[in-house]
Amino acid sequence: MTTLLALDTATEACSVALLHNGQVLSHYEVIPRMHAQRLLPMIKRLLADAGVPLSALDAIAFGSGPGAFTGVRIAIGVVQGLAFALERPVLPVSNLAVLAQRSLREHGAQQVAAAIDARMDEIYWGCYRAEQGEMRLAGVEAVLPPERASLPDDSSGDWFAAGTGWGTFAARIPV
User: How do 90-93 and 134-137 pair as beta strands?
Assistant: First the structure.
């Protein structure tokens, strides 16, 4: 079985998760501007709680954004250091893709319009479609004003709205 460490610091939340023997254990805290101080202790606590040594990791995944630039850099730095020391592969994962995959898993959504509030009156935007149980990007991920968001040209059917961008800008997103 694969043992995978995953972490995300792209938003105000800081999260770490461990997949080990088919089970997922995670820690999550909303800690604006504290990611650099809390991430390594969170990883250490997670591994201790699971009884898994760092050397048992097969790979390390991280939320590669879009999101806060400094937060993404923190994740990249920690992952790069761990992966280099352990000689393990790194798996970058789009935060928009994670939203889409969660929408499929939790709501059965087959088409997802993911939007994250990018601040400064913009959103991070991506559209995804389910293919064989996994969400696939339908187009490109982008940062843009909410009014410029659009569904793929070949879209039909219902689209599921996911992410913080919908809470902030729903009235301005023209889809």
Answer: unpaired
Taken as a whole, the chain contains a residue count of 175
pLDDT(1) > 80 = no
Boundary of a domain, candidates 62, 93, 124: 93
Domain residues for the domain of 136 are 95-172
H/E stretch holding 47: helix 35-50
Of 4, 73, 13, the C-alpha closest to 38 is 13
Judge if 151 and 80 occupy the same domain.
no
pLDDT of residue 171: 97
Q: In the structure, what pLDDT confidence band is assigned to residue 142 with cuts at 50, 70 and 90?
A: very high
Dist. CA 128–CA 89, nearest whole Å: 26
Report pLDDT digits (tens) over 92-123: 999 999 999 999 999 999 999 999 999 999 99
Q: What is the distance between the alpha carbons of residues 175 and 114, in angstroms, rounded to a whole number?
A: 12
Residue 74, domain CATH: 3.30.420.40
- What pLDDT score does 169 carry? 98
Say which amino acid occupies 23: Q
Q: How many domains does the chain have?
A: 2
Pairing of strands 59-63, 4-8: parallel
- DSSP, res 1: -
